[in-house]
Structure formats: structure tokens, C-alpha cells
Design goal:
Elements (H helix, E strand, L loop, with lengths): L8 H17 L5 E6 L7 H17 L2 E6 L1 H4 L9 H15 L8 E5 L4 H5 L1 H5 L4 H5 L2 H10 L6 H15 L5 E4 L4 H18 L10 E4 L28 H10 L16 H14 L3 H8 L3 H28 L2 H29 L5
Parallel strand pairs: 1-2, 2-3, 4-5
Helix pairs in contact: 4-14, 9-10, 11-14, 12-13, 12-14
The structure holds tryptophan.
Tryptophan binds next to strand 1 and helix 9.
Length: 358
């Protein structure tokens, strides 16, 4: 069996750049698969980090599948009561950000509703070894971060499930952050091993490529770690303008009065400048120069105004969608039907090459 290796980050970045170029030229050759766990509502880190990129790809005309990974929620937490509510709110956030489920090329679906996708997990599990699953760095980090004492087998195997999420629709582009690269490498190995073992004459699965995000990492308002709802340092898409103002007011800065853009030495102030840059279109350097002696008070005031203004249309759409639960059901039903049609075809092909047809 060919070894599972993780290439260097630089080589992945270089390939990702080439992919980006070709995507713009030949969007019809690509099928994008991305996804999220339904663990809560989305914040501006998600918006600037991944949602806007998905919308951009969709608008290039690339087929877009967005999987809501509800089964993954069960891997590292006890609570499941909120899953259904979170699925709906995730969908609302997607639509408010510009994902267009009316188009023929976009599908949003929870994977629990696509049985043929889930069934791919069974043959895929036979293509990886226990020690490969045990070595996955992202899984190890998640186990640590969640402080799990009793680790369920779903935790070790969800990256294989993720391969089923991607390969059921023969997705060939997966926009990812760095932490998801080990999972994608596993998916590529599974595709390769499946083709080698069962489909030597014709390849059933493509090897999906990672598309690394070009947008900067958005830190939380404490300036020290990634923005995240659970760390209480996030501005949610669903926050009100007053809540947004209060959060920015409390944001951490430093003792230096003059505003400069220096992400290395002044991460808190630089992160606020980056957010201001994302909501105004000006560079953080220019903004720092403009604010200068005005200090953090001026910076915060500018950010509050610009960000609230920037988010206003999105929040308005969001509020309208919240009033229309039937529409959200309709969107998910359409997404599930579209995903299922493809999953049935893929499973049929898979059973065929595995000699399991009767
Ligand atoms: N593991 C991803 C996360 O935690 C979510 C996810 C599930 C996903 N299936 C996927 C991402 C398939 C990309 C492709 O964010």
C-alpha cells in the first residue's frame, strides 16, 4: 500500500496558486465541495475567511456542494439537542452571505440525509490503517483541545467520513484552511487506493485538490487567538449593531498611543486594522496612517461604523430569512435531493467495481 505522506506547505501553496488560475479560466472543469459542522452560528471570521471565497467560486460558475457535517458533531461533544437548529442557522448564514441555492449548480445538504454518501464509509474504512488514523495531527489536536478522556471511534474515523463527503460527488476542489490539509491528504490517498484496488481499468474517483484561502487569519477581539464563538471573542453575523459596537469597544489594544500596522508586534491593533481594511477596501497600512495619532479610540469608532455598514445588507437578508422557515426547509430539501441523485449514481458505480452487484 502506498504511504500516506504530508507534503510541504510551500508545495501545497504553489499548487493551490496554479489551481486558482485554472479555476478562473475553466470553471466548468471543477466541482467544489466544502463543509462545516453545525455547531453554532457563523461569525465575521467565517465570512472573511471562507464564505466570501465560496461565493466567489460559485459566481465563477463552478458547481458548488456544501455539506453540513452533522454526524461530525457527535465526535467530540455530548450535546446534540441543538443540531437541527444549528443546521437551519448555518443555512441562513450561507444564504445571507450570498450563496445562491436557486441556481442549478449549488447544493446545501446535511450529510445525515444522504444514505448513499454514508455507505461509502464502509469500503473506505478498509483502505486505511489504524495507525494512519491514529497519526492524524488535526484529530490529535482536537482531542487535546476538547480535553477528551474517552475518545469514541467516530473521532478517529471522521476524516474517512469526510473523504466520503468529498468523493461521493467526485468533488475535485476543496477550499480549506491549513488544519484541514491532513484530512484532504487522506481523501486523496483513499481515492488513489480505491482506484488501484478496485478500478484499475477506469478511475472512479478524482484526487481532489486543496485550494488554500488567500484571506488573512482573523483573530478574535482579544487579539491572541483565532476568532471563535466558544472563546467568546467573535462578532457574529447575527449580532445587532449595538452588540457589535459593544464588542469592539471592549476589544483589546495596547499601550502605544499611535496606531501602526505591525501584525508581529502589535497583533491586537493590527487585527482591528485588518477588519477595518476588509470592510472598507483600503489597505491596513493606509488606514494606520490615516488614524495615526487618533489612537485606539478613533480606530474602534471607525471600525464600528464601517463594519456595521458593511454587514447591514447581509444582516437585513439574514433577518428576512429567519422569518421564512419554510423557505429554508425548501432549500435543504432541494440540496438533499440533488446530492442524493449523484450519491446513488456513485454508489452504484462503486458496488459495480467491487463486484457486489447482484
Ligand atoms: N471537518 C470540517 C470542519 O471541522 C467540516 C467538514 C466536514 C468538511 N466534511 C467536510 C470540510 C468536507 C471540507 C470538506 O470544519
Amino acid at each position: 500500500m502506498e504511504k500516506l505522506t504530508y507534503g510541504t506547505y510551500e508545495s501545497t501553496l504553489e499548487r493551490s496558486r496554479k489551481l486558482e488560475e485554472d479555476l478562473t479560466k475553466n470553471p466548468a472543469n471543477y466541482r467544489v465541495l466544502t463543509g462545516d459542522r453545525p455547531t453554532g452560528r457563523l461569525h465575521i471570521g467565517h465570512l472573511f475567511g471562507s464564505l466570501q471565497n465560496r461565493v466567489r467560486l460559485q459566481n465563477l460558475g463552478v458547481n458548488t456542494f456544501i455539506v453540513i457535517a452533522d454526524y461530525q458533531v457527535l465526535t467530540d461533544r455530548d450535546s446534540f439537542e441543538a443540531i437541527s437548529d444549528n443546521i437551519r442557522h448555518l443555512t441562513i448564514d450561507y444564504l445571507a452571505a450570498g450563496i445562491d441555492p436557486e441556481g442549478a449548480n449549488t447544493f446545501i445538504f446535511p450529510h445525515s440525509h444522504v444514505p448513499e454518501l454514508n455507505q461509502l464509509l464502509l469500503p473506505f474504512l478498509t483502505l486505511v490503517t489504524m495507525s494512519e488514523l491514529d497519526r492524524n495531527p488535526t484529530v490529535k489536536e482536537e482531542i487535546q483541545a476538547a480535553g477528551l478522556k474517552r475518545i469514541n471511534a467516530g473521532m478517529y474515523t471522521y476524516p474517512v467520513h469526510q473523504a466520503a463527503d468529498i468523493l461521493f460527488c467526485k468533488g475535485n476542489v476543496v477550499p480549506v484552511g491549513k488544519d484541514q490539509l491532513p484530512h484532504l491528504e487522506l481523501t486523496r490517498v483513499i481515492a488513489r487506493r480505491f482506484n488501484e484496488r478496485f478500478a484499475a481499468q477506469k478511475s472512479v474517483f478524482p484526487e481532489p485538490q486543496p485550494l488554500l484561502s488567500k484571506s488573512p487569519l482573523i483573530l478574535g477581539l482579544d487579539g491572541s487567538q483565532k476568532m471563535s464563538k466558544s472563546r467568546n471573542n467573535a462578532i457574529m453575523l447575527c449580532s445587532t449593531e449595538d452588540e457589535t459596537a459593544a464588542l469592539i469597544k471592549k476589544a483589546k489594544t495596547d499601550a502605544d498611543r499611535v496606531i501602526t500596522y505591525d501584525p508581529e508586534n502589535r497583533p491586537e491593533v493590527s487585527n482591528l486594522l485588518m477588519l477595518l481594511s476588509l470592510s472598507t477596501g483600503k489597505t491596513p497600512e493606509t488606514l494606520a496612517e490615516e488614524i495615526g495619532e487618533g489612537g485606539s479610540g478613533t480606530l474602534k469608532k471607525a471600525l464600528t461604523e464601517s463594519l456595521n455598514e458593511y454587514l447591514r445588507p447581509l444582516r437585513k437578508r439574514r433577518a428576512e430569512l429567519e422569518q421564512n422557515p419554510d423557505y429554508i426547509t425548501q432549500v435543504l430539501t432541494k440540496g438533499i435531493a440533488g446530492a442524493r441523485k449523484i450519491a446513488v449514481e456513485t454508489l452504484d458505480e462503486v458496488l459495480d467495481v467491487m463486484n457486489m452487484k447482484i
